Amino acid sequence: MKLKLSVSISPRATDDELLFARQLGAECVYTWVPDSHMDVASLTELRQKVDDAGLVLHNVGNMGVGKCDKIQLALPERDERIEAFKQFLRNLSAAGIHITTFTWEQAAVWSSENRGSSRGASARCVEMHELEQRPFTHGREYSEEEIWDNFAYFMGEIIPVAEETGVRLALHPNDPPVRILGGVPCLINSFDSYKRAFEIADSHALGMEFCTGCWLEGGDRFGHVEAGLRWCSEQGRICLVHFRNVSAPLPNFTETFLDNGYKDMYPLMRILVETKFEGTVTLDHTPNFVQHAGRGSGTAYAIGYIRALLERAEAECGVEG
Q1: Which residues constitute the domain of residue 239?
Q2: Which residues pair with 209 in a beta bridge?
Q3: Rounded CA gap, 104 and 203, in Å?
Q4: Is residue 3 part of a domain?
Q5: pLDDT on residue 108
Q6: Quick check: is 52 in a domain?
Q7: Of the candidates 50, 48, 38, which has an alpha carbon nearest to the alpha carbon of residue 13?
Q8: For residues 175 and 222, what is the distance between their CA atoms, to the nearest angstrom?
Q9: Nearest CA to 169 among 265, 269, 50, 60?
Q10: What pLDDT does 118 receive?
Q11: What is the pLDDT of residue 1?
Q12: pLDDT digit string (tens) for 264-292?
């Protein structure tokens, strides 16, 4: 088994979307489904359509449970939303899907106004002096231990169901990975915080999305990205890798094309090959090409670059195609 390339599709993927994935040489796809598509029938229909296209539906998430302030901040209806998450796991398993993604960032990804540029392409940027001026998202400041307690409560409820159904939970880091945003501590903002989460879960059912972009945003404070990638891969914790590069570590950064950031991405790919990683590698965010280039041009550019890195790493490590 070797790592596979994956691309995003819509919850009701068209034949052209799936054909585009195959034309790029991707073996897998993933998506986020709305609440209306969390049932077994809808998930099975999508998985079957992906199968028929010669691809694998590797992971499926739902924003309503995967980024839920009621769960993460112990707000009213927390237990109802956890029950909905449990049922989602059961439905995924029944549909033949065994990875779902979630984050512990109830206010989603934070960004500054798009003033960034990678070789003249519009790109997401973060300027921390601006983000730090924003008001509380939930009316007050929460303590870090409150948020860890909420995480532990959730793990106690969800891990038995994940183990029962065989669906792994892929935990994505906070983006940007800072101490606090909008009065809410950013729980997964370092290698050490990942290790604490794994200890709390005490189960292989909790895995991770290794987001190279977030690790690079955090720089040394997040942890050494190459050492972290090697450890997490060798421990079998990585369900999927988000491949992304940025211009610099925090406090300010712009997302870049994979070959245009401050990190040489080849050593990361080589580590994945050396450690025999068997999950998926997917493009994360990418700068926007001009409209003339057409929809999908950014994805095609990135997947082509990722494939070239993979082929080089496999050749140098003696891995047969």
Answers
A1: 61-85+100-295
A2: 240
A3: 18
A4: no
A5: 78
A6: no
A7: 50
A8: 12
A9: 60
A10: 79
A11: 67
A12: 999 999 999 999 999 999 998 889 899 99
pLDDT at 116: 67
Q: Which residue has the tokens 């094309």?
A: 257
Angle at 179 (CA atoms; ends 124, 280), nearest 5 degrees: 55
- 113's tokens: 């106004």
Domain assignment present for 65: yes
Counting every residue, how long is the chain? 321
Nearest Cα to Cα of residue 62 among 89, 95, 24: 89
Q: What is the pLDDT of residues 297-316, one digit of tens each?
A: 999 999 999 999 999 999 99
Q: Residue 218: which CATH number?
A: 3.20.20.150
Does the global pTM surpass 0.85?
yes
Percent share of the chain, pLDDT over 70:
98
Cα–Cα distance, 212 to 258 (Å, whole number): 11
- Residue written as token pair 């991405």: 265
> And the tokens for 3?
């790592």
For residue 238, give both structure tokens.
Answer: 């990585």
Q: Which two tokens stand for residue 281?
A: 């590698």
Q: What is the tally of structural domains in the chain?
A: 1
- What sign does the dihedral 275-258-237-190 (CA atoms) show? positive
Q: Which of 143, 119, 141, 144 is nearest to 132 (CA)?
A: 141
Domain contains 81: yes
Residues of the chain with pLDDT under 70: 1, 115-116, 321
Query: Checking DSSP bridges between strand 252-256 and strand 245-246, what pairing results, if any?
Result: antiparallel
